[in-house]
Write a structure and sequence with these properties.
The protein has nine helices and 18 strands. The chain is α+β, with helices and mostly antiparallel strands and 483 residues long. A hairpin with a 2-residue loop joins strand 11 and strand 12.
Length: 483
């Protein structure tokens, strides 16, 4: 595993963030961006860096069932055991889907990752250099004592404007609920404590009596008064903005687009679509190599152009392709892994090389088939385990305010985007001339399959104690069957 780069060390020093302080990750599908937040010397989280996402699959909305190609949305906790330093997709960490909320709704799927190689079938795919940096930041946080770091996965940035644009979506009730967790984080700059009861998320809540049961009735609980007040203020502000956008006729986004994921505009601009071809009913194009003599990366093209643009934040890696090495396709076989090169965590497949190519080109296999993984990459030199100064003490908790889980602490002013409410239709005509429809609840999910067996411990050399690959596989079914 590589140490943090000099550039990252300099950025940490500039922002007053200890190398080993805790991190938090936020993912936004529509904008195709992944943010890494890190505690600074004051003990609050601040934005460290924004990474353009190379590829995500599915549409906006949560993952419902195995095989739907949806990248998850919600709140996930990443422990050292979910870090995979031996992934066929260079490096990866398992999101831990399904979590308690997903299980309460009988949602199915497995092995949903954030990984390298810019190839996704239900995952958030980065370039190899991006995932190296993100993985290393997680490793340093674990070495500094963080037990787990939180991943917050959203359909889009949870602004009043975006909520107004998507107000007709059947997922709106779910999005209002996870927006509350977003509001807790943005109002406090602290990682929200996440629990589940009555099949819904609750945040920064401590039960007065009893305990949280994902499918049971919520007990009465306390939320620190300082947090509850800050969240209320943010929600009231957002509700006023939401109502203003609706009354002004903000155009609504299409509920069903027929698309399959997206890419950040940075990567879309670099795609070579002239030599593209069709595999599994989807068009495949190439990202150019970042160094002379390198091999291009094969990428499934999104079937719809993203509406978002690159962020203007100076720390956004908007020009990442200019200096980033993307996943290589070269291997020991005459044509690299195109004709059956094996990955570092793979077992030998009984298929012929032509058979593997046939699956990849859409001549067989499931609809979730993806281009083959890159060949094994040489093991990187381990980073120094030396620990910098200990991180600052956490701020003292504020006084608590008792709240009932089944009701708000006060009447909702507008009811626009507060969780558990339905926005009132606007009397003003929209830009398309149609009245906004009321939000609908998500459809019932199918029953889950059997829970997958626990992964075996990784015995290789890793700097994160207890780290292990989630599943050792290179077969098509082994890698992609759970998506």
């Amino acid at each position: 595993m590589q140490p943090l780069s000099r550039e990252m060390q300099a950025l940490l020093d500039k922002k007053g963030m200890p190398v080993d302080s805790p991190i938090l990750v936020r993912v936004f599908k529509e904008e195709a961006e992944l943010e890494v937040w890190k505690q600074d010397k004051s003990g609050q989280y601040a934005l460290l860096k924004t990474y353009p996402i190379c590829r995500w699959s599915g549409e906006l909305g949560p993952k419902i069932k195995q095989g739907d190609r949806q990248a998850p949305e919600g709140f996930y906790s990443i422990t050292p055991g979910q870090m995979n330093p031996n992934s066929s997709y260079y490096l990866a960490f398992n999101l831990g889907f399904p979590n308690a909320f997903d299980k309460a709704h009988d949602r199915t799927g497995q092995f949903l990752m954030v990984h390298g190689d810019c190839s996704s079938a239900g995952c958030y795919a980065m370039t190899d250099e991006q995932i190296t940096e993100i993985y290393s930041l997680g490793r340093e946080a674990f070495l500094g004592g963080q037990k787990s770091f939180q991943v917050q996965a959203y359909p889009f940035r949870m602004t009043a404007l975006n909520m107004a644009r998507h107000r007709n979506s059947p997922h709106m009730a779910f999005w209002r609920m996870i927006k509350e967790g977003n509001d807790h984080f943005e109002a406090t700059r602290q990682e929200p404590k996440v629990d589940v009861c009555e099949k819904r998320y609750v945040f920064n809540a401590t039960p007065v009596s009893g305990s949280f049961n994902p499918v049971g009735r919520c007990p009465s609980y306390q939320v620190p008064a300082e947090i509850a007040s800050a969240v209320r203020d943010k929600q009231d502000h957002d509700e006023r903005q939401f109502a203003a956008h609706v009354s002004q006729g903000v155009r609504t986004a299409a509920v069903t687009t027929g698309s399959d994921g997206g890419m950040h505009p940075t990567f879309l601009a670099k795609l070579n679509t002239q030599d593209s071809f069709v595999a599994n009913g989807r068009r495949v194009a190439t990202l150019p190599p970042s160094s002379p003599g390198g091999k291009p990366t094969l990428v499934y093209l999104p079937t719809a152009t993203p509406t978002a643009v690159a962020a203007a934040d100076p720390d956004t890696t908007a020009g990442v392709l200019g200096s980033t090495r993307v996943a290589s396709a070269d291997g020991s076989a005459p044509f690299g892994t195109l004709f059956g090169g094996s990955g570092s965590e793979s077992a030998k497949s009984s298929e012929s090389g032509f058979g593997r190519v046939g699956k990849w080109l859409g001549l067989g296999g499931k609809a979730d088939d993806v281009p083959p993984p890159p060949s094994a990459k040489p093991a990187a030199k381990p980073a120094s385990a030396a620990k910098p100064a200990s991180r600052p003490a956490a701020p003292k908790p504020a006084a608590s305010q008792t709240m009932l889980a089944s009701s708000s602490s006060r009447p909702v002013a507008l009811g626009a985007i507060r969780p558990g409410t339905t926005p009132a239709p606007s009397s003003a005509a929209s830009a398309t001339g149609a009245q906004p429809k009321a939000a609908q609840t998500a459809a019932a999910a199918p029953k889950p399959d059997k829970t997958p067996a626990t992964a075996t411990a990784f015995a290789g050399g890793t700097l994160v104690p207890g780290a292990q690959p989630v599943r050792s596989s290179s077969s098509f079914e082994g890698r992609w069957g759970g998506m």
